[in-house]
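Problem: given the chain below (230 residues), write out its structure.
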Amino acid sequence: MAEMLLERGIPCTIEKPPGADLDEVRTLAATALRTGTHHMVSVNRRFNPSLNRAIDWAHSVGPVRYIRAAMVRSMRDKPDFIWGTGLHAVDAMRHIAGTEVVSYSSQTFDSPEISGQWHIVSFEFAGGVMGRLDILPTGGRTEETYELFGENFSASFSSMFWKGNRIRCQKCGTIEIDELAVDEPHDLASGAFAETSRFIAALRDGTPMAPMLDDVLPSLEICHDIARDK
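Solution.
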C-alpha cells in the first residue's frame, strides 16, 4: 500500500516497521527516493515533548557524552520484537545523540529461563558520544527510560505510557527540573499528536517531511543485524 501511494505521488505516513523484512524496507526507500513523494515514518519518540525537553535542557548545559536507555515490556516474546518495536528505542538513541552511529555491538541473553530475546546493545556515535541500550521484552513491566549524561549534569526521561511521563534534570548535584505528568492524554504524552501535527503542517505549508525512510533506515538495519546475531 505504501509503495502504491509513493508511486502515485500521494503524501503518506508509514507505520513501523515499514516492511516485513529489510529487503522490503530498502525497496520502499528506493521507491521514495525515485519518486520524491513526501512521506513520514511513524517513529513518535522523535516527537515526544517531554523527551525533547530533556534533550534540549541537556544540550543547553553542555555536550552529552553518554546515553543510557532501557525498553522494558511484559510478555512480548515474539522473535520480531527487536525490529518491530525495539526500532523505536534504537531510533530514539540516534535522535538523542544527534549524530550517526559509528559502531555498535550487541549481546543477546540465551537462557531457558527467559522466554523473550533480551538484547544489550552498546553504541559509539560520531563525535565520541557513547551509549547503551537494554531491550527486555519480557521484563515484567511497560516502561522506557532515556538518560543523558555530561560533565556534572544529567537529564532523564521515563515513560510509563498510560501512567505518565517524568523528566528529571540535575546540574552539579542540584535538581533543576523534576516533573511528573500523570493526567496528560496519551496522544500528547507519546508524541503521536506532535507527529501528526508535523505531517499536517508539512502538507499545508509545502515544507519537507521528516523523518523519511532514508532517515529511519539506519535504525532498521541495526535492529535486523541484532536479530541475525541472536
